[in-house]
Amino acid sequence: MLLIPCPNCGPRDETEFHYGGQAHVPYPENPSELTDTEWSRYLFYRENPKGIFAERWVHSTGCRQWFNMLRDTVSYDIQAIYPMGARRPDLAAAPAGESGTASLAADSTTTGTAAPSLAATSLAAGTTPATTTAPEGATK
């Protein structure tokens, strides 16, 4: 069982938290303009790396606040806890616009007013996927 350090309440048992999926997935700027394939890629395709992974968590039985966590998917070691909307600590020195930056969209996962850009994603309007096979690393 994990001991998760809530940024508001301190270390708590894993059973008090709920996993919220991959962190830093920006909401499409114009979702009504996406094709079915592009929309399904936004909804269902996520990274599944072996190693450090940015995740969203909510302290559901405590402060009920969302936060991001960098966790090693092999050893389950928690590398960092950081607020929603903040840059990944391991990419803090990276220039703005590179992967790992959080969306500032006013949606269920972040706070702010700026709409996210899809310029760096494969979901940009008018693009078509190069293949219809599963993403690299996916299993059959």
What does this structure look like?
It is built from one helix and six strands. By secondary structure, it is mainly β. It has a four-stranded antiparallel beta sheet with strand order 3-4-5-6, with no helix packed on it. Strand 4 (52-58) and strand 5 (66-72) form a beta hairpin. The model is unreliable at 97-132 (pLDDT under 50).
Short descriptors:
6 strands, 24% strand, mainly beta, 1 helix
Topology:
Layout: E1 3-6, E2 10-13, E3 18-22, H1 36-44, E4 52-58, E5 66-72, E6 78-83
Antiparallel strand pairs: 1-2, 3-4, 4-5, 5-6
Summarize the structure.
This protein is mainly β and 140 residues long. It contains one helix and six strands.
